[in-house]
Amino acid sequence: MIASVLYGWVFYQNRFYSESFLQIAFFIFQSYGWWYWLKPITDKKEIPIQKTPRSSIVWVALTFIFGYILWYKIYTNIYLDARYPLIDVFLTVLSLTALFMQAKRWYESWYLWILADIIYVPMFFLGDQPITAALYLVFIFLAIFGLLEWKKAIKKAS
To answer: Are 94 and 18 in contact (CB under 8 A)?
Structure first.
């Protein structure tokens, strides 16, 4: 949670405003997760890892496209000095989509995280944030690890 606050500030200072908003979303999700797991409820059930239901694929894709277009139009009218707004907005909406899918425990969320991290690395490098670029390079490998672990869990469950 501290990292989200710090990176929100760093991204804002470097004119990656959409990434700052993403850090706020991460902070909210982390706060909810912390609160949820601290509640003394004994009947908490873990959602099983599964492939994205076919009925949800089109809905998720359309929501992503609509979210991207809407946020881009709002964002570019407010933040005239933003760095790489097309990519910044794309990555924010992609990350929120991956986060939603991960909360649903849909296996394919990891593909979105890998794609996002692959694009984040050059964006942050070109945006004069080499340490952040290196961190997101590490995130690529962590996302690959998550993908492989969830793949094992799906095979084990079937």
So the answer is: no
Residue 150 Cα distances to 12, 84, 142, angstroms: 34, 33, 12
Q: What's the pLDDT at 89?
A: 98
**How many Cα neighbours within 13 Å face the side chain of 149?**
9
pLDDT (0 to 100) of residue 36: 75
Beta-bridge partners for 106: 50
CA 58 to chain centre: 19
Give the separation between CA 6 and CA 52, rounded to whole angstroms: 33
Sign of CA dihedral 53, 54, 59, 63: positive
Looking at residue 137, its pLDDT comes to 98
